[in-house]
Amino acid sequence: MTPPSASRRTRLSAEERRASILVAAMDVFAEHGYQRGKVSEIAARVGVTEPVVFQNFGSKAALFAAVVDAASVRICTELSDQVTAGTPVSALLADVISPAHLDQLHARGSLGVLFADSVAPAAEPAVAEAGRSAVRRIADAVADMLRHGQAAGDIAPEADPAAAAWLLVSLISARPLRLAAMGGDDRERLEYTVAAMAISLLAPRA
Prior knowledge:
- There is one protein chain.
- The protein has 206 residues and is mainly alpha-helical.
- The chain has a single domain (4-202), classed as Tetracycline Repressor, domain 2 (Orthogonal Bundle).
- Helices cover 77% and strands 0% of the residues.
- It has helices at residues 4-10, 14-36, 39-46, 50-57, 60-84, 89-96, 99-106, 111-118, 125-151, 161-173, 175-182, 187-202.
- The longest helix is centred in the last third of the chain and has 27 residues, at 125-151.
- It is globular, with a radius of gyration of 20 Å.
- The termini are far apart.
- 29% of the residues are buried.
């Protein structure tokens, strides 16, 4: 008799198979990073062989690039959904750039690991280009969110949405650097103050 798991695998369409590989790859690369993440582990999680993974994505670099692209789409969708649900943009920003959230974003197993690896100096060309494209997409989504906040009176009308978006992206991505460089018992207070200052810069003037 054919094992139930094998039966389920044979019913997957090519699109479903590719999507399942992408999900597993996102988990593995987020947990281990690009260099240490193994295609064999990705294949095992999906229940296929390594050649099947390469048949779908061509190379490990191309798979990682697809993962980074999908991760950026997920983040942009989550931001858009929050705004559509009526969350004030200022409140959403305060949550996103809070030190506690940034710690989660940069922790192993999180999406932040993917972006850090993709823009690292030693990243392969295909990976680096995917990283740059993904970060640009996120910055554009943040700029759109800020424009929505301006229309709602929640963000200062004189703020440049594109420039402010890059300020926020830079603040988010540099959290590990700040913690490593600051040191001392005062760094958490400084981090909360940095976040508060960023929000204050974008708040409407009385």
